[in-house]
Amino acid sequence: MLIFLSCSKIMITILFFLVCFEFSNGVNVRSSEGRKGQWQLLLNNTGVVGMHVALTYKDTVIMFDQTGAGQSGYRLRRRFNGSRCTINHHDLLDSTCYAHSVEYDISANKVRPLRLDTDPWCSSASFLSNGTLLQTGGFEKGAKRVRFYRPCGNHQCDWIQSKKTLSDERWYASSQILPEHNRVVVVGGRRVFTYEFVPKTSPGEKSFDLPFLHQTNDRDGGGNNLYPFLHLSSDGNLNRVIKTFPRIPGEGSRNYPSSGSSVMLPLDHRDNFQKVEVMVCGGSSIGALEAARKGRFLEGLRSCGRMVITGNNNKWEMEYMPKPRLLHDMLILPTGNILIINGAKHGCAGYENARNASLEPYLYSPNKKLGKRFTMLKSTKIARMYHSSATLLSDGRVLVAGGNPHGRYIFHNVAYPTELRLQAFVPHYMESRYHNWRPSNMTIYGGGGSHAIGYGKEFRVEFFLEKRMQNNEVGFSAYAPPFTTHSFAMNQRMLKLRCKSLDRKGGGWVVAVLEAPPSPNVAPSGYYLLTVVNGGIPSMSQWVQFAHA
């Protein structure tokens, strides 16, 4: 079932988290102090605003901006067609003499420029089963384009623009990978009320009207249903409307340009991955867009709503963040908790439309009691406003990039300058004081020559564990990294996997037998980050591919 939420953004996340209870009591780590995390400055200049960000299975991060921004912070010696970029006035102003997309090498902490032939401004993307990023839409000549990025290990890969195009223009659309046939559904866009599938199965395949988009269109609010939140449920129902959900309580709006955010909470093997719960947080007050255009910045929304979308009792459970928030990202951490990061407290999305940066991330613990779920983390000194983004890395850090509430790169005499600095937020559990409890040296066995593990199949994971936590819990999570832009982490998914056995080999080595997800309805084919979690302390993650055997 593909879920569309009115006034809210929904991202798709798969977590496989398996818990075994076969260790005796061990050392307990204090939980009362020093859990706010740390910030790292990685680069002073990425060259390109990280408006759109995606982690690849080669442990590189793709970032891109709009080509229409003109002069970026990364000037090229040669255009991608081979001609030189000189210091004459024309070339200094020519946007083709500047990069608008880069690949960030995490281990080398360096960026290299990538080629874009058309403008992907405010576009969408999803990873295919082989790790290729299928990117759709954009602005003007880029609005109907389809692009591919196949990650590589030799720094030679680049964007490839398909000769085939979309049926409709897709600017501010969302996309979601589907369970079968390596197909993606692309939904909505500015003044577009349809959805379509990519790739097409026949030359004459067109788009399909979606009444929901007509019903939720707010003409006075700039749409307020752009970048619709999509969630792929695990029940396998597609291509028909089977349920209509209640509107989230309260005033205000959640989707762009109100730009709240949404996440699907981790799926769990203990209920056969059948309980699917979504969460929506933040957004803008009624009239925020019109007010911002007149220089008044209304307070954003504090409210969050959770709803189980499976079963028959579909009701919103409401709660409140510590402060109002919009333009933020919501990411699932390996522990199953949710990180809320970036954003502002007043206004809405769009150029110059927000004020009062949200500098403190929030940690949301979904399994705690209502009223006890939010924790405020360490503040950053760098405002991450409109057109900022974030993504989880395999080493447990969260990469934070971008921020540009202007049509061009502006660094002076504005409230919030164009932001090219690259940061990492380091959750407290990744700090060195937890290394004795951190599972390490993980190796994944299974999948045969293709290294892909079949649905429902057993596979082994070997790792080293020096100390176990007092609560004895050792679990396993599988995470599908998202494509993140405009406060929505598309295709994000986390699963709590089944652990069938957990045995000590001696000398601190442990072997676990895990069970892969049962079907592509639960986990669409592709690459996932597998993490061992020892009582809340995660390992570094390793890539694993799930697919039909």
UniProtKB/TrEMBL annotation:
Keyword Signal: yes
SUPFAM superfamilies tied to this protein: E set domains, Galactose oxidase, central domain
Signal peptide: 1-26
Domain Galactose oxidase-like Early set: 451-545
InterPro entries: Gal_Oxase/kelch_b-propeller, Gal_Oxidase_central_sf, Glyoxal_oxidase_N, GO-like_E_set, Ig-like_fold, Ig_E-set
Domain Glyoxal oxidase N-terminal: 51-429
Transmembrane segments: none
Keywords: Signal
Classification via Gene3D superfamilies: Galactose oxidase/kelch, beta-propeller, Immunoglobulins
UniProt cross-references to PANTHER family, sorted A to Z: ALDEHYDE OXIDASE GLOX-LIKE, SECRETED PROTEIN-RELATED
Name used for this protein in its record: Aldehyde oxidase GLOX
